[in-house]
Amino acid sequence: xxxxxxxxxxxxxxxxxxxxxxxxxxxxxxxxxxxxxxxxxxxxxxxxxxxxxxxxxxxxxxxxxxxxxxxxxxxxxxxxxxxxxxxxxxxxxxxxxxxxxxxxxxxxxxxxxxxxxx
Length: 118
What we know:
alpha+beta; 2 helices
């Protein structure tokens, strides 16, 4: 009986670590990156400069890019943004950037803020 219980706990722990995550501010970058990879999202790049003390990871989401800003010291997420552009030449291209409150890696549900937090 103990072995069965132990096996069940190990299985539950392994499922929890490979399950979907909801990306929000304060989440560990390692957890977020693993969840994005498990969900099948691919890293991409954008030529953007982060704020001082921060770094960026960019992930292809549909026709846009999820930009994950994280603290270099704590490696915790400090901001999420969704960026996309239309197909026009660079000189006339329209770009859009939205502040993201959360992104569920399992369902693809993204919550965008319409009013920036103060």
